[in-house]
Amino acid sequence: MFETILISALLGLVCLSVYQKINNAVYKSKKRLDGKTALVTGGTSGLGLIIAQDFAIRGAKVIIACPFEDEGINARKEIIEKSGNQNVVYKYVDLSSLKTVREFAKDILKTEARLDILVNNAGVGIPGDFMTEDGINFILQVNYYAHFLLTLLLLPLMRRTGTENDPARIINMSSLTHRIASSHVDDYNRTGYRLKLTIYANSKLCLVLFARELARRLVGKNVVINCADPGFAATRIYKSGNELLGLIAIGLILLFAKTPYEGAQTAIYMGVDDAGTVTGEYFANCRQIKAHIMAYNESNVKKLWEQSMKLVQLDNKDLDDLIGA
Length: 325
Prior knowledge:
By secondary structure, the protein is α/β, with parallel strands linked by helices. It has one domain: Rossmann fold (3-Layer(aba) Sandwich). It is built from 10 helices and 8 strands. It has helices at residues 2-23, 46-57, 69-83, 98-111, 138-161, 196-217, 243-256, 260-272, 298-311, 316-324; strands at 37-41, 61-66, 88-92, 117-120, 168-173, 223-229, 282-284, 287-289. The protein has an 8-stranded mixed sheet, sandwiched between helices. A hairpin with a 2-residue loop joins strand 7 (282-284) and strand 8 (287-289). The longest helix has 24 residues, at 138-161. It is globular and about 50 Å long.
């Protein structure tokens, strides 16, 4: 029995490997981003670091943000060395604190003249199932609710930056795990999940639902928002649940699926290519695809929006000011 299960698992991995390798896409355009500014949360490691480095190579001013100062300083140095672009800035933000997110957004609005690309990339895996001081599930706050708040707070700057022919772009880093999320949006913000992977999957579906609703509200505002699916890419996020199992997972993923470089390509494509000017859509392997059917449930889209507004303490007047009535 065990041998049968093992053989089946190995065959499944081989099939995954073949599928991933056939469909992996690399964005090869040399299009420049001179004069533009990009902000990448979690741009100090993993996929975010690769995305930030690519934008810097293309000539953009790049702001990388994370809560670890040493990591941020080292990442900035690495990006400058590899890109030759000195216009790279590290800024501190802790997504587990909405107060810190507000302070970070205020600083960006004060110091930056424009914001062309916002990549909501930072995230955690499944380090624990607990509530933050803001009364929000930690995984959901870092992966989604903090990005919801940050995105809305930065919209006035992005609206001023975007034009009809070249809109500012918001890119949410979702995941194929959004396809195994719970459909019970009302029940998301709690602890006590039997399977912590469900929390992570829920957070990734949230990013898709958020993109669909914000896209609707931003019609005519010269800002677009879409979701990127990096596929199974070997980053340190897989270590967050269990160190040993995480290392094994990364080894298997490297063997059978994507490298971090490959996983970053779709977000880069969306930030640079003209195809990235659609809105409310989902991309994988540098092409637009359909998200899971749950992403098109308008009732859940609206429920999540209302719940998110309440949890991050924004009201409709705030929203009118940020989006532009």
